[in-house]
């Protein structure tokens, strides 16, 4: 499966701009983002899910330009903090197409969301109902809310991202009765309207089965209350990080869940809810490529290729054991490929970008490397470990490059150090 952006010449250019030129112009490490690819994925999702809602999950990657693209393509936006909301607000993203998530929303998150008038707030705990109701009481219109329910579905993914199972911090358990209790609480609040139910069963889910089970369980639960207008099935749609992998087949997924919801509603005699999905990774992951410069090559028990980034720009291998492929950019020497382990510059032995990946045997300091499929949960999860400044995000389109987020500087980092 192709894991490079739509407009890429793999390992050579993206959006008509040579990767070597991008590295020279913007330095390394750098995140490159294919605007066409992002827009194309937004359109594919809207088409596959029509007439339902598609909300882009901003946690995967958000900046002002991304929010604009998502708005222009007619998607909703899922935010999960006042910070993400501020980005959306700064570009005038329509409030009625924003959903606020969070298992620990702060008073600032809730106030900002109510002030801006977001379309939906997804309630995640019993205590949140009274807090939100009190804050929403001052407004002219009641706030539409969804309830995040834990449907008890195991999507068979890494434990850290299996969020549909009972034993975890997100949502309200269906099995224990916590969800039913919170439905009753919401229905008692005149400042809140229960628009529907939500679930998000996990990440990197490649098959629709778990979604179908969750949808059926949530519809059955809705039927206890005579049905509800909306069912939000969250995100978590898998993408291929390496050529031998496959992502979720989105049209097939849409078919399966639509059929399941229709069957379940008809069996229970309730009206069909409209659906919402919240893909993040599946919109933006494959649009991104990270560029690194090789700093050192060390031969020993294995060959380590040390690059000028690492776990501060890509924490996913450390967090989830994620695997990537990697390519050398530019000169082709005809050297045979050999397995190497590409590691970062941080003070952690586990700071690996890609273990046991093939690279030309003559890889050497100064070479440029490109890692595809790094558009989601890279920039948004980047850190300043070892006081390393975060890379820029550069958008490419039609042969032109423009910075969306500039490279952090040592001054940026020092500015917060006020002691
Ligand atoms: C509630 C919710 N919606 C959507 C997403 C987006 O997930 P993904 O980027 O895997 O599609 C997440 C993150 O996993 C989430 O927690
Ligand atoms: N951040 C994760 C997954 C969790 C997404 C948010 N619920 C990743 O990189 O894969």
Automatic annotation (TrEMBL):
<feature type="domain" description="Orn/DAP/Arg decarboxylase 2 N-terminal">
    <location>
        <begin position="36"/>
        <end position="285"/>
    </location>
</feature>
<feature type="active site" description="Proton donor">
    <location>
        <position position="347"/>
    </location>
</feature>
<feature type="binding site">
    <location>
        <position position="281"/>
    </location>
    <ligand>
        <name>substrate</name>
    </ligand>
</feature>
<comment type="pathway">
    <text>Amino-acid biosynthesis; L-lysine biosynthesis via DAP pathway; L-lysine from DL-2,6-diaminopimelate: step 1/1.</text>
</comment>
<comment type="similarity">
    <text>Belongs to the Orn/Lys/Arg decarboxylase class-II family. LysA subfamily.</text>
</comment>
<comment type="subunit">
    <text>Homodimer.</text>
</comment>
<feature type="binding site">
    <location>
        <position position="316"/>
    </location>
    <ligand>
        <name>substrate</name>
    </ligand>
</feature>
<feature type="binding site">
    <location>
        <position position="377"/>
    </location>
    <ligand>
        <name>substrate</name>
    </ligand>
</feature>
<feature type="binding site">
    <location>
        <position position="348"/>
    </location>
    <ligand>
        <name>substrate</name>
    </ligand>
</feature>
<dbReference type="Pfam" id="PF02784">
    <property type="entry name" value="Orn_Arg_deC_N"/>
</dbReference>
<dbReference type="InterPro" id="IPR029066">
    <property type="entry name" value="PLP-binding_barrel"/>
</dbReference>
<dbReference type="InterPro" id="IPR009006">
    <property type="entry name" value="Ala_racemase/Decarboxylase_C"/>
</dbReference>
<keyword id="KW-0210">Decarboxylase</keyword>
<feature type="binding site">
    <location>
        <position position="236"/>
    </location>
    <ligand>
        <name>pyridoxal 5'-phosphate</name>
    </ligand>
</feature>
<keyword id="KW-0663">Pyridoxal phosphate</keyword>
<feature type="binding site">
    <location>
        <position position="377"/>
    </location>
    <ligand>
        <name>pyridoxal 5'-phosphate</name>
    </ligand>
</feature>
<dbReference type="InterPro" id="IPR002986">
    <property type="entry name" value="DAP_deCOOHase_LysA"/>
</dbReference>
<feature type="binding site">
    <location>
        <position position="320"/>
    </location>
    <ligand>
        <name>substrate</name>
    </ligand>
</feature>
<comment type="function">
    <text>Specifically catalyzes the decarboxylation of meso-diaminopimelate (meso-DAP) to L-lysine.</text>
</comment>
<dbReference type="GO" id="GO:0009089">
    <property type="term" value="P:lysine biosynthetic process via diaminopimelate"/>
</dbReference>
<keyword id="KW-0456">Lyase</keyword>
<keyword id="KW-0028">Amino-acid biosynthesis</keyword>
<dbReference type="InterPro" id="IPR022653">
    <property type="entry name" value="De-COase2_pyr-phos_BS"/>
</dbReference>
<dbReference type="GO" id="GO:0030170">
    <property type="term" value="F:pyridoxal phosphate binding"/>
</dbReference>
<feature type="binding site">
    <location>
        <begin position="278"/>
        <end position="281"/>
    </location>
    <ligand>
        <name>pyridoxal 5'-phosphate</name>
    </ligand>
</feature>
<dbReference type="InterPro" id="IPR022644">
    <property type="entry name" value="De-COase2_N"/>
</dbReference>
<dbReference type="InterPro" id="IPR000183">
    <property type="entry name" value="Orn/DAP/Arg_de-COase"/>
</dbReference>
<keyword id="KW-0457">Lysine biosynthesis</keyword>
<protein>
    <recommendedName>
        <fullName>Diaminopimelate decarboxylase</fullName>
        <ecNumber>4.1.1.20</ecNumber>
    </recommendedName>
</protein>
<dbReference type="GO" id="GO:0008836">
    <property type="term" value="F:diaminopimelate decarboxylase activity"/>
</dbReference>
<feature type="modified residue" description="N6-(pyridoxal phosphate)lysine">
    <location>
        <position position="59"/>
    </location>
</feature>
């Amino acid at each position: 499966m192709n894991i490079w952006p739509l407009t890429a010449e793999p390992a050579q250019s993206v959006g008509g701009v040579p990767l070597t030129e991008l590295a020279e112009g913007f330095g390394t490490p750098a995140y490159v983002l294919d605007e066409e690819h992002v827009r194309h994925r937004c359109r594919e999702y809207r088409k596959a899910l029509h007439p339902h809602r598609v909300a882009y999950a901003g946690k995967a990657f958000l900046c002002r330009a991304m929010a604009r693209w998502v708005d222009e393509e007619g998607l909703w936006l899922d935010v999960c903090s006042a910070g993400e909301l501020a980005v959306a607000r700064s570009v005038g993203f329509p409030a009625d197409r924003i959903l606020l998530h969070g298992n620990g929303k702060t008073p600032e998150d809730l106030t900002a969301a109510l002030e801006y008038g977001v379309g939906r707030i997804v309630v995640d705990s019993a205590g949140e109902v009274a807090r939100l109701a009190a804050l929403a009481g001052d407004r002219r219109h009641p706030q539409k809310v969804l309830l995040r329910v834990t449907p008890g579905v195991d999507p068979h993914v890494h434990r850290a991202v299996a969020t549909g199972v009972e034993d975890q911090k997100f949502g309200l358990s269906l099995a224990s009765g916590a969800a039913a209790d919170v439905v009753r609480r919401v229905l008692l609040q005149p400042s809140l309207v229960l628009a529907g139910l939500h679930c998000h069963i996990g990440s990197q889910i490649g098959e629709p089965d778990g979604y179908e089970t969750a949808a059926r369980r949530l519809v059955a639960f809705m039927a206890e209350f005579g049905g509800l207008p909306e069912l939000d099935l969250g995100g978590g749609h898998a993408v291929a990080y390496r050529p031998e992998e496959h992502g979720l087949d989105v049209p097939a997924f849409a078919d399966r869940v639509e059929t399941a919801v229709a069957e379940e509603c008809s069996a229970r005699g309730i009206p069909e809810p409209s659906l919402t999905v919240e893909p993040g990774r599946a919109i933006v992951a494959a649009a991104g490529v990270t560029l690194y410069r090789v700093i050192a090559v060390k031969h020993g028990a294995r060959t380590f290729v040390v690059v000028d980034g690492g776990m501060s720009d890509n924490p996913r291998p450390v967090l989830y054991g994620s695997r990537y492929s990697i390519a050398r950019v530019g000169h082709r020497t005809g050297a045979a490929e050999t397995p190497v382990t590409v590691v970062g510059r941080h003070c952690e032995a586990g700071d690996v970008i890609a273990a046991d990946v093939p690279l030309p045997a003559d890889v050497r300091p100064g070479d440029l490397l490109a890692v595809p499929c790094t558009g989601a949960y890279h920039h948004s999860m980047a850190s300043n470990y070892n006081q390393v400044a975060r890379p820029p995000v550069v958008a490419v389109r039609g042969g032109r490059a423009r910075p969306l987020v500039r490279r952090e500087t040592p001054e940026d980092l020092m500015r917060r150090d006020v002691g």
